[in-house]
Write a structure and sequence with these properties.
single chain, 432 residues, alpha/beta, 11-stranded mixed beta sheet, 14 helices
């Protein structure tokens, strides 16, 4: 089947120009697309599902995040496809089709911000807006070979964005160029001009890289060499994150008791973190959307249907424990990194899965991915996924995390490191 020239990325196309255009504005001349979870005045926010679109009125106002980039001079060219109800990591939508991954056409684009990632990866726009609760910007960025930024929790307004789980929801964005990623971030985060800060330490957790099916040196070597060149090797520290989390987040003990520590490919404390995060997401999703789900009985895709069913059946049991986990984990990670420390991890466990992989296999892959993705989701820290070339002809990436509120520092660091990282990744790619 022939694919549309827009790679199936858009659910609707329209043009919204800046209210007061000027070449001096920070995003002047740039085009962007918006995930169809953000309100745009006069347009129905479709949430990835035709029944949702049918049962909701057009938005009466535009989400502040969208307004801010328009006011900064960018032009919006449309709304993008997402997973139904933003409740999947893979980007396959039975109603609107699956946007085609420009980096790997036989692989999933990642979700739930699938169309936003594809629009940037296919060079249809300069940047795009997405949302990230459990990994919905970071995973598609990795799978489509582009930059993706998850902002610190509550750092960018989520007003006018349909909630998945408010305790975890964040606004994120995609770009191909670090300079554009940073400019968009400065607008959305309303950052003042400031000199970049030097990283105090770059922590490389060996156990996290062992969760990846990419040889760890393929990712870490490029990072280490780039850091040595730009900042000196003395700031690189190796650690075992799982042990640190186990020892410093006692509230995880109730989740740890349920985990088989002998299971392969598992870091018990990160698995416990994921389970705590999953519980809260289900609980808040149920509170947000149970009424609509019960009233409409929408025809949901297979993986989505399972996720929604699990959420609707969730009880309040253990929800209080989650708040303790979140508080303790935030404090533990803040203590580990300090003001200008960085945690480097694989974004996801490897390249994107094949299209139409069966739901049970995707669940296994998703659980592996969430052990890594839950680190930023639960702590509320900011995270950027950086493309690291191809491995076996498929896109791979590395992620950098900084403490909550250090978004500007992280955006500066990406811009500083990016060129060297790409050079080193290319060397590593050729040497395999």
């Amino acid at each position: 089947m022939a694919m549309a020239p827009d790679y199936g990325a858009f659910v609707s196309k329209f043009v919204l120009k800046p209210p007061s255009p000027s070449p001096s504005l920070p995003l002047a001349g740039l085009t962007f697309a918006v995930k169809d979870i953000f309100d745009v005045e006069g347009h129905v926010t479709g949430f990835g599902n035709p029944d949702w679109a049918r049962t909701h009125e057009p938005a009466s106002s535009t989400a502040p995040a969208v307004l801010n980039v328009l006011k900064a001079g960018a032009t919006c060219v449309g709304k993008t496809v997402l997973d139904e109800m933003a409740y999947s990591l893979f980007g396959e939508n039975k109603h609107y089709g699956t946007p085609r991954n420009p980096c790997a056409p036989d692989r999933v684009p990642g979700g739930s911000s699938s169309g936003s990632a594809v629009a940037v990866g296919a060079k249809l726009v300069d940047f795009s807006l997405g949302s990230d609760t459990g990994g919905s910007v970071r995973a598609p960025a990795s799978y489509c070979g582009i930059l993706g930024f998850r902002s610190s929790h509550n750092a960018v307004s989520t007003v006018g964005v349909i909630p998945l789980a408010q305790s975890l929801d964040t606004v994120g964005w995609f770009a191909r160029e670090p300079s554009i990623l940073k400019q968009v971030g400065r607008v959305l985060l309303e950052l003042p001009d400031a000199d970049p800060n030097r990283p105090s330490q770059i922590i490389v957790p060996r156990d996290c890289f062992q969760l990846s099916n990419i040889p760890s040196e393929r990712l870490t070597q490029a990072l280490v060499r780039s850091v040595e060149k730009l900042f000196g090797g003395g700031i690189i520290k190796h650690t075992v994150l799982g042990d640190y989390v186990r020892d410093n987040v006692p509230a995880l003990s109730s989740f740890l008791r349920e985990i088989n520590e002998d299971e392969v490919d598992i870091i018990p404390s990160l698995e416990a973190l994921f389970r705590a995060r999953q519980l809260l997401l289900r609980y808040e999703f149920k509170n947000n959307h149970k009424e609509w789900i019960s009233a409409v009985n929408s025809d949901l895709g297979p993986g989505i249907l399972d996720n929604v069913r699990d959420a609707i059946q969730t009880t309040e049991e253990n929800v209080d424990v989650y708040w303790s986990v979140k508080k303790e984990f935030h404090a533990a990670l803040t203590s580990l990194l300090g003001d200008f420390g960085i945690l480097a991890i694989p974004t996801v466990p490897g390249p994107p899965p094949k299209l139409q992989t069966d739901v049970s296999s995707l669940k296994v892959y998703g659980a592996k991915a969430f052990r890594l993705l839950s680190i930023a989701s639960v702590s509320g820290f900011c995270q950027v996924s950086i493309p690291m070339g191809l491995h076996d002809n498929l896109p791979i990436s590395i992620s950098l995390l900084a403490k909550h509120g250090a978004d500007g520092f992280l955006l500066d660091l990406v811009e500083t490191l990016y060129e060297s990282l790409q050079e080193q990744a290319e060397i590593a790619e050729k040497s395999v």
